[in-house]
Amino acid sequence: MDKIKILTILASSICVLFAESSIEGIITFEGKAPKMKTIRMEADPICSLKHDTPVKKEYLVLGEGNTMGNIFIRVLNPPKGDFPAPEEHATLTQQGCKYSPHVMGLMVNQPLEILNPDGTMHNVHAMPKINKEFNQAMPKFKKKMVKIFTKEEFMIPFKCDVHPWMGCYVGVSSHPFFDVTNEDGAYEITGLPNGTYEIEAWHEKLGVQTATVSLGADTSAIANFLFHAPKKNE
Ligand SMILES: [Cu+2]
Fold this sequence. Notes:
- The chain has 234 residues and is mostly beta strands.
- It has one domain (22-228): Immunoglobulin-like (Sandwich), CATH 2.60.40.420.
- Helices cover 8% and strands 41% of the residues.
- The protein is built from 2 helices and 17 strands.
- It has helices at 3-17, 45-48; strands at 21-30, 72-75, 90-95, 98-100, 103-107, 112-115, 122-126, 134-138, 144-147, 153-160, 167-173, 178-180, 186-192, 195-203, 207-215, 220-222, 225-228.
- The protein binds copper (II) ion.
- Copper (II) ion is lined by residues 94, 97, 122, 160, 162-163, 166.
């Protein structure tokens, strides 16, 4: 075999090796959206002074056309492989006495930096079922702490024992094939080899939905999800 032929074969096999596909879609809410109640922060004047306009509850965050934010979406049957945690930390900020983001994901063993720029006392209470629970005060002088979750777990609720309205959810994944939507409802999971995948979309009150997606090499498949309004508004 001449050199060029060998090189061509090598190049094409590398292409197959690195052929990566993606799944993307939009999450939409269907039905009459409940009116979000205002969060009353008067109990801590430092919190209420941080907002010029009323702060609404965050369990339903809708964009134009009722697209949904705060949906955690992941592959349930990831491809086999070794997926080391990124060195870059993920960040959860207590900002204006709210958690930002309200729903987030990170990988097993990826550092989670928890920030408190608020100038008031927060108490970060993570309530996992598989990982280790922690409940730690962050007085106003403590601006940062770092936590690591060592096991996969979906979803871990966090709350603040000082401000009862504060809550968020953290998904800890053993692989990088997950995403969280902003209010435009769009998600994208990239870097998948060809195959058939089960994907799950999670909402904190409306539960989960799943879909099966078959991916060829170097393709992009679309899987949209529709969540329906609950029968009884909260
Ligand atoms: Cu707090």
